[in-house]
Amino acid sequence: MLTNDSGLDALVIGGGFYGCTIAIYLNRHRGMGSIALIEQEASLMTRASYSNQARVHNGYHYPRSFTTAYRSRINLPHFVRDWPDAVKQDFTKLYAIARRNSKVNARQFERFCHQIGARIQLADTSLHSLFEPRLIESVFLVEEYAFDSTKLAAWGQGELKNCGIDVRFQTKVIDIVKARNGMLAVSLRHGNSEQTVLTRRIFNCTYSGLNRIGGDFPGTNASLKHEITEMALIKPPPALSKMGITVMDGPFFSIMPFPARDLHTFSHVRYTPHLSWEDQPSVDPYQRMDEYRHDTRVDRMVRDVARYLPAIQEAKYVDSLFEVKTVLVKNEVDDGRPILFEAHPNLPGCYSILGGKIDNIYDVLEKLDAETL
Ligand SMILES: Cc1cc2nc3c(=O)[nH]c(=O)nc-3n(C[C@H](O)[C@H](O)[C@H](O)COP(=O)(O)OP(=O)(O)OC[C@H]3O[C@@H](n4cnc5c(N)ncnc54)[C@H](O)[C@@H]3O)c2cc1C
């Protein structure tokens, strides 16, 4: 049983990277003693925090959003400092610019990297020769890393325990209502049993589930968009095995180490999103994902990418990660990834948080530092 009568200091909904890190922060930096973390799955960081491209962003990906690029530059060194064991650095990272249909050319990309202070140099001829020169204008050597989400999950598990945080798995938050003395009453469902818990604060870190909570919860002001995405997992051929490759900036592709399974993710701007919709009360993104047929599009990805990078034909397809990706509608145009951080004035003590990408945790913690909790 969770503590009930006097109420919890905080209840965090969602055991992804954001929920875990925020719960630990509340205990370590804000002195909260009674915290519960509620997760509907059977363990930590199994949803978006696991099924992603594992890129620790360093700005290169965002030539159309200077703010996101710049914040990534600031956050990456902090992430490497705080989670050194979870960061993989021992691979060669290339960004290549396509000659046609690219929203940036090589000169613009180089200038942008200088503006954000990100290291960039022309790749040597052996690296260049991996690409089809009629389709690729330039290839650059850059500095970008990958993270191992299983190591982040192990860290979260250990730290939540050290902080004495009560973690409940296979438990779903159904609704939140205002209760006496400024408290919030949260209904939880675990199997067939339901329980109500009182708390002074709530941190809604449910990513695709942000607006699926009932009762007095008002929903986010910002509009959300959901996509069902497929990241293929491949074993690359020897020529690509110690590499990460991204072709910018348009309907192109990425191949990134996926340390959690010692494979590479393979994604394509055209084929990775299978379907998308704007958030609406009647559609539960997790349910839509469960009902969706997981037919891989890896053949189409390989066919297109082989035109640019012939060696991809030698890659071995292993599996696909399907997951809902949730982003802010307002960033459709520039592909930026700011955080969503909303306090709900009609439900005092309740916050909704969407990170956007893993290193944005520092932007969230900065916001929390500024809050009187
Ligand atoms: C395909 C894809 C590629 C990506 N690539 C990158 C990348 O390369 N680099 C990067 O930095 N970021 C990337 N991201 C974004 C990154 O994965 C997310 O920003 C981050 O993982 C979000 O963490 P989170 O804790 O908010 O979400 P999650 O890890 O999804 O955690 C939310 C948790 O809340 C739980 N939950 C939901 N509703 C309820 C409820 N009602 N009750 C109880 N529990 C609930 C869910 O089960 C889930 O475990 C990518 C995302 C996707 C989907």
Highlighted features:
22 strands, 23% helix, alpha/beta, 373 residues, 9-stranded mixed beta sheet, 8 helices, D-Amino Acid Oxidase, Chain A, domain 2, binds flavin-adenine dinucleotide, elongated, 2 domains
CATH-wise, what's the superfamily of the largest domain?
D-Amino Acid Oxidase, subunit A, domain 2
Q: Average pLDDT value? A: 97
First and last CA, distance = 25 Å
**CATH architecture heading of the largest domain:** 2-Layer Sandwich
Write structural notes for this entry.
The chain is α/β, with parallel strands linked by helices. The protein folds into two domains: 1-54 and 148-219 and 344-373, FAD/NAD(P)-binding domain; 57-147 and 223-336, D-Amino Acid Oxidase, Chain A, domain 2 (2-Layer Sandwich). It is built from eight helices and 22 strands. The strands form four sheets. Strands 5, 6, 7, 15, 16, 17, 18, 19 and 20 form a nine-stranded mixed beta sheet that branches. Helix 1 (17-28) runs parallel beside helix 5. It starts with 9 loop residues before the first strand and ends with a helix. The mean pLDDT is 97. It binds flavin-adenine dinucleotide (FAD). Flavin-adenine dinucleotide binds next to helix 1, strand 10, strand 15 and strand 20. Flavin-adenine dinucleotide binds at residues 13-19, 38-41, 45, 47-49, 51-55, 57, 172-173, 205-207, 209, 212-213, 229, 231, 323, 325, 355-359.
Chain-wise SSE layout:
Blueprint: E1 10-13, H1 17-28, E2 35-38, E3 55-56, H2 66-82, E4 87-88, E5 92-98, H3 106-116, E6 120-122, H4 125-128, E7 136-142, E8 145-147, H5 149-162, E9 166-168, E10 172-178, E11 184-190, E12 193-199, E13 202-204, E14 214-215, E15 224-235, E16 243-248, E17 253-258, E18 263-268, E19 273-278, H6 285-291, H7 298-308, E20 316-328, E21 340-343, E22 350-354, H8 361-369
Parallel strand pairs: 1-2, 1-13, 2-9, 5-16, 10-14, 13-22
Antiparallel strand pairs: 3-8, 4-8, 5-7, 6-7, 10-11, 11-12, 15-18, 15-19, 15-20, 16-17, 17-18, 21-22
The protein binds flavin-adenine dinucleotide (FAD).
Residues 13-19, 38-41, 45, 47-49, 51-55, 57, 172-173, 205-207, 209, 212-213, 229, 231, 323, 325, 355-359 line the site of flavin-adenine dinucleotide.
